Amino acid sequence: MPASSRLQPPQASPFQSAADATRSFVASVPPDTRCRLEVKVSSREGMLLLCAVEAALADALPKRGGQELVWLSGAPAPGAHRLRLQAFGPDNALIAEATHEFVE
Q: Could you tell me which of 34, 78, 72, 77 has the C-alpha nearest to residue 50?
């Protein structure tokens, strides 16, 4: 079959990708060390992206901890979405961080 006619698996939406990245990040940080999570998104669809991240946090966290969700207006580029996750421990010390970019 020619390469141009091969079926490509559908790409996950940026919202699903952000939710998956959030769940993975939360799972990678030991719960007894994190006191607060901070999530920043930069995207033209920032509110929708924040909703996807908030739903992922609600599913991933056993109880509500301190969390801060921030929408930075504007996008890094048209069709691009940036997600920055940070976990803070006691005394507000940064214990983990991750940045992801998704392009439509």
A: 72
DSSP the chain: --GGGSPPPPPPPHHHHHHHHHHHHHHHS-TTT-SEEEEEEESTTHHHHHHHHHHHHHHH-SS--EEEEEEESS-SSTTEEEEEEEEE-GGG-EEEEEEEEEE-
Per-residue pLDDT for the chain (104 aa), expressed as one digit of tens each? 444 445 544 567 888 999 999 999 999 998 888 888 899 888 888 888 889 999 998 888 876 667 777 877 676 787 788 999 999 998 889 999 999 998 87
Q: Which domains does the chain have, with CATH numbers?
A: 12-103 (3.30.1330.90)
C-alpha 10/C-alpha 30 separation (Å) is 33
